[in-house]
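In the design runs reported in the main text, the only information available to the sequence generator was the tokenized backbone. The following block is the verbatim input for one such run; it is reproduced so that readers can re-run the procedure and compare outputs position by position.
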């Protein structure tokens, strides 16, 4: 191969090598396919495609590979059986070239290889299938997901007048929408807060966490995205956020202390001594 400077020399070298191997009952040829086969690569806005430039060399190697065989001959006159072993080993790094050779030569894949191929195909389909992110609740494609594109709250929503009920974003939105449609006054509006950052629910301020669309890291090995209930599972996980609960408890304690010092009109309540 190292002395093969053009296609004709490659053919001559390969032909000589195969003829030499035919002289033996047992032989093994090892090819560095990436060095022998040259690929053309073309990029477009939609995809990248590959093709084989020295197709004659490729076809020659492909047909010779089909002659590899391991078998025993019929017994001769003396009853002697000859074992024929013609091994061909191909080292291929380029995935596209490897798959092309496997398909063209019609190798029978092992059970392990079939399983790997099936798994890879499922991953490919999964990566190209649009779905709703369980964190930011926007549609995304896993293959195109990037760090910094997912803005979300890793906690839950509470109405501080009913702090024992932990709300999901959807339920909080329903409560807020009902209040808006009823045209409640500002004092009557539900006081909805995100427990994780104590920001008011419904404000246009960016959520407190930024990451990559998909499952939280701590759930990647526990929750399957093909589970129809994966969004609810993540929301329930956020309800258990210990930091969010601690933030909320501290806030409610201070809020109640402040509220007890306010009168019905919002003015400070004075003691009898102060009123005199």
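Verbatim output:
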């Amino acid at each position: 191969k190292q002395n093969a400077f053009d296609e004709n020399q490659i053919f001559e070298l390969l032909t000589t090598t195969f003829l030499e191997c035919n002289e033996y009952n047992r032989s093994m040829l090892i090819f560095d396919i990436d060095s022998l086969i040259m690929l053309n690569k073309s990029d477009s806005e939609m995809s990248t495609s590959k093709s084989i430039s020295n197709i004659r060399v490729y076809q020659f190697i492909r047909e010779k590979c089909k002659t590899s065989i391991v078998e025993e001959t019929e017994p001769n006159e003396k009853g002697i059986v000859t074992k024929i072993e013609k091994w061909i080993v191909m080292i291929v790094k380029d995935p596209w070239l490897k798959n092309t050779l496997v398909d063209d030569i019609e190798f029978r894949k092992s059970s392990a290889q079939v399983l790997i191929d099936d798994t890879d195909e499922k991953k490919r389909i999964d990566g190209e299938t649009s779905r709703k992110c369980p964190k930011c609740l926007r549609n995304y494609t896993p293959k195109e997901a990037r760090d910094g594109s997912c803005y979300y709250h890793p906690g839950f929503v509470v109405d501080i007048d009913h702090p024992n009920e932990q709300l999901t974003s959807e339920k909080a939105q329903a409560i807020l929408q009902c209040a808006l449609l009823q045209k409640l006054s500002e004092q009557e509006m539900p006081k909805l807060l995100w427990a994780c950052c104590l920001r008011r629910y419904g404000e246009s301020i960016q959520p407190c966490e930024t990451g990559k669309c998909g499952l939280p890291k701590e759930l990647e090995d526990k929750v399957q995205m093909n589970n129809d209930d994966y969004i609810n599972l993540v929301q329930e996980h956020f309800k258990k956020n210990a930091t969010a609960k601690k933030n909320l408890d501290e806030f409610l304690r201070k809020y109640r202390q402040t509220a007890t010092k306010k009168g019905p009109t919002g003015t400070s309540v004075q003691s009898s001594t102060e009123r005199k």
